[in-house]
């Protein structure tokens, strides 16, 4: 991870957490469930996807700036889940030979931040789970309202997000948003009838 890839991430995460805390105390816009609970960040989880080492980077940065992340007030779930994309082509970068990036010890742990691994599929690409479900089958936003998204039953799932490795001096992923094929609206019979 080069600095230009990750230096903005901790500030962005803290901004999102601040927005979640603010929006959890007011009613949502029309079509969104009310979040008037008084519990900050109730039932919401931010998910981050990236290379091995991202969890350690996020935890250490948030700890060093003494950020207050905490856990979900409703059910104790983490507020941030870091999904590290594991596997891929061996020998991709010097990082593959350094176990420190994969190390998990108490010095890297932070309450409210959890690490999970996501393996590539048979084609060598990673598929990011859809909004409603994560790899464990649980709601991607802790079962509650998504961050600035309509409730799950009103979201369209006509796309999939995939990641693939990019040749670079450090582990780097490119992400694509692939729309599902949509049936055409042309009336073939009418076109053929007109010649």
Automatic annotation (TrEMBL):
Q: Where is the signal peptide?
A: 1-28
Looking at the UniProt entry, the stretches that span the membrane are none
SUPFAM superfamilies linked to this entry: Metallo-hydrolase/oxidoreductase
The EC category is hydrolase
Keyword flag Hydrolase: yes
Q: Which domain of life is it from?
A: Eukaryota
What are the UniProt keywords, alphabetically? Answer: Hydrolase, Signal
Give GO MF terms, alphabetically: 3'-tRNA processing endoribonuclease activity
Q: What is its EC number?
A: 3.1.26.11
Gene3D superfamilies noted in UniProt: Ribonuclease Z/Hydroxyacylglutathione hydrolase-like
Q: Return the GO cellular component terms, semicolon-separated.
A: nucleus
Q: Which PANTHER family match?
A: ZINC PHOSPHODIESTERASE ELAC PROTEIN 1
Report the protein name in the record. Ribonuclease Z
**Upper taxonomic classification of the species?**
Eukaryota, Sar, Stramenopiles, Ochrophyta, Eustigmatophyceae
């Amino acid at each position: 991870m080069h600095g230009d890839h990750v230096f903005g991430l901790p500030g962005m995460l803290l901004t999102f957490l601040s927005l979640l805390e603010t929006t959890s105390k007011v009613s949502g816009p029309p079509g969104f469930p009310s979040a008037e609970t008084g519990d900050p960040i109730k039932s919401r989880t931010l998910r981050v996807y990236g290379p091995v080492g991202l969890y350690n980077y996020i935890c250490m940065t948030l700890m060093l700036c003494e950020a207050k992340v905490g856990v979900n007030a409703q059910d104790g779930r983490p507020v941030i889940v870091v999904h590290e994309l594991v596997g891929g082509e061996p020998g991709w970068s010097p990082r593959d030979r350094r176990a420190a990036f994969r190390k998990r010890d108490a010095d890297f742990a932070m309450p409210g931040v959890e690490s999970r691994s996501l393996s590539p599929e048979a084609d060598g690409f990673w598929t990011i789970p859809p909004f409603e479900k994560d790899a464990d089958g649980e709601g991607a936003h802790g079962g509650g309202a998504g961050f600035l998204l309509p409730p799950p039953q009103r979201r369209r799932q006509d796309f999939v997000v995939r990641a693939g490795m990019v040749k670079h001096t450090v582990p780097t992923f490119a992400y694509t948003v692939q729309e599902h094929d949509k049936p055409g609206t042309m009336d073939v019979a009418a076109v053929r009838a007109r010649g």
